[in-house]
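Human: Not sure, check this?
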Amino acid sequence: MTKEVTIEKMRDSAIRRAVGPTILLGSGTYFDFEDPWNSEITIEDIAYGLAYEGRCAGQCYSRILQKRVFYSVAEHCVRMSHSVPDELALEALMHEVGEAVCGDMNAPLKSLNPSFKAIEKKCEAAILARFSVAITDPLEIKRADLRMLATERRDLLPWKGERWGIDDYAQPYDWEIIPWAPEVAAQSFLNRYHQLVNP
C-alpha cells in the first residue's frame, strides 16, 4: 500500500468519524448512530440536548402568556416525572433520551419515516442501558405521555377544541404550564435526575 493510499484511507476515516454517522456532544465525546451501545454520553449531554430541543416542532403558543413560547423536551420530561407514581419517576424523566441525540421529530412526520424511528429507538435503548434505566411499565409511561400531550395542547398550542385521537385516552393534568428557559430546564432535569438516583 502506497503512502498516498494510506493517507487517503486515514482522511476518509476521519471524515466519516467527524461528519458521517456521528455527532460531537457538548462533553467532547462522539455519539455514533451506527454503534450507540459503545458511545459515551453524559447526563449533562442529555439534559442540555433535551433542554434546547423544542416540543411540537417549536410551534408553541401560550394561552396563559398570550404569546409564542419555547417549550423544551427536558421540561416535558421533568414535569412528567412528577406526574407518575414514584417508582416510575426515573423512567418518566428518561423516556425521551433518544431525542437528546436524534432531535424531536414530531409524531405525524415520524410516522412517515420508519427508518428514522428505528434509529431513534436503537439510540434510546442504548442510552437507557448506559444509565441502567429500564422501562418497566411502558403502558403507564405512554398514558402519562399522552396526558402530558393533552396538557401541552391545552396550554401551549393554539388549539380550538377540535377532536384528536388522544381524546379517547387522556385528559389534561390539572396544573398549568408556563414554560421555563432552556437553562432552567437543563438544570431542573439534572436536579431531578440526581434526586432520583441518589435519594
Remarks:
- Residues 26-197 form a domain with the Hypothetical protein af1432 fold (CATH 1.10.3210.10).
